[in-house]
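Retro notes
What went well: the complex prediction finally ran end to end.
Inputs used:
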Amino acid sequence: MLIIMHPGASQEQVANVIAAIERQNLTSHLIQGVEQTVIGAVGDSHAVGKEVFEILPGVAGVTRISQPYKLASRQFHPLDSVFPLDGFSVGGEEIAIIAGPCSVESRSQVLEIAQAIREAGANALRGGVFKPRTSPYVFQGLGEEGLEYLAEARELTGMPIVAEVMSVAQVELMVKYVDVLQIGARNMQNFSLLRAIGETRVPILLKRGMSATIEELLMASEYILAGGNPRVILCERGIRTFETATRNTTDINAIPVLKSLTHLPVILDPSHSTGLSEYVAAVAKAGVAAGADGLIIEVHNDPANALSDGRQSLTPEKFATLVRQVKLVAEAVDRHLAPVID
Amino acid sequence: MMIIMKPGASQVEIEHVLEEIKVNGLTPHLSVGEDHTVIGAIGDTHAVETAVFEVLDGVESVIRISQPYKLASRQFHPKNSVFPLDGFSVGGNEIAIIAGPCSVESREQLLETAWAVKAAGAQALRGGVFKPRTSPYTFQGLGEEGLELVAEARQVTGLPVVVEITSITQLDMMVKYVDVLQVGARNMQNFALLSAIGKTQTPVLLKRGMSATIEELLMASEYILSGGNQRVILCERGIRTFETATRNTTDINAIPVLKSLTHLPVILDPSHSTGHADYVGAVARAAIAAGADGLIIEVHPDPAHALSDGRQSLKPEKFVELVKQIHLIAEVMGRKLAPVPTTQAA
């Protein structure tokens, strides 16, 4: 960490900062400039907050040099983390495709979609049963009944299940049914939830918050990793910007940036990151071309009558076309689609 | 356009709106709801501002239904516009790669880069001579001396040249030297400059402003098109967001969105949209996979000593690799790289 002193900071203020550095078990290194003094705080500073120094008199600013995350960092763990799931793996050579409806609406809907996406080449089934909807007056999900349907779909197709958990109170129930717990964008910084799932051994799909920086996403993953759960998949799902032509703005930069900063698998959700089904395929291909390890895509057998996210859901036919295109792009970047479960 | 009246708007206020619609050459269509009265204004509204109605008493809001741009619109011109440049074309099946230094720094630097990007497979050379730098104290470009060097590079390599114009006063001189005039992000809404360029017949590379919406970019292109210059290439170069890990945020959505809204060619500048040489290759591949018609990429023989944008410039060796990867992505998209010009430009 670099502590930059105000021009004209007193000798006493500088001494004060040096004492504070030593109290944090760091070593101080003084650099006397012409106008300003800069003090380096050398050592393992990932658990030291900048505020400790920012509040001291005479300090103009504090710049962090090393990353505030450790377990998620590629520095700490240089090789890619590869997690085996049922029948395929995430984070290695294979590109994993998770697909399914935004919400589980009925038994027949989820079973029909599950079979259609499996046939099209999906590796896992997504489906929400607890839905974080903007309006409290619209469909909120089927709850445990929906989990029963997902379990049946899993039985029928062999595909592992990805479902979103919204609250600490749901964790116990969810882990009985699902293969991957999803943390949605709105809960990326629900720290008590992150801690609770960090204590489970269920793989996590952690979505980036809609106004979270890449570093904040990595810090959120650190909560889960620090709890002892090493299987975290990160997901870019678009951020909030001034652009209104699409629901969100796909931060495609986040893919290569995350792949360089962390060993964790990184996937893209082009359904939420565009919000419009006509742009999903183009952005899905872009995700894989940029180095993403997988995709999560909303598919509905009848988008026009979907209870949520119909505007961004693909029909099974459009999804089958997308998988064929993604397969080609994967090959062009020396990767291949994960095998579909028998 | 749909004009939504406030709940309880008076009959007189509604009459006023109906009149104003007719004054603008449009036909009104009244629908009275339980709470709100909504009045449609039907006809060619692209030249009518929403403000004309927004200021009237009793009006709650105005919603534009049709696009405010016309010449740029795919509705108006359903087929892709394909522009021939020297030896290749933009907007068709071919992917064009424009490459070169951020700034023209010296004869040696420019020629070395030009030959290197040509050997790697670029179809055109970029190089700035008037530089819009954030700080007035840093290198501002070589000006006309730089244009002479660009002309020489063009002559010897046969590559058409793309150079940024930052002021209307440079226009007469620039069109003598360059094949494509670039309007940079900071000038996307320099309307006097856009209008002046619209009167030339030089192809234009129009970059999206760093806080411009897709619609504002299309409106900027409309300034050029309506002046009579039909050859406008649009360029996504990243937008300003809260993310600080990269210089800008590449709005990859803009590629398929623009390709659906407009017939104009759309390219991506991954150098500016990431700001880091390490990420340029990945984002360049993403753009072609998303349907972009080309790329513009900063290449410098010695990025560490570049006078501008060194952090985001690729070394020629890295650029060679990038072109190979782009070639593979283009193929799976059913497209191909444009041929490198072989003959010397006239």
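What we learned: Residues 83-337 of chain A form a domain with the TIM Barrel fold (CATH 3.20.20.70).
What to try next: split runs per interface for comparison.
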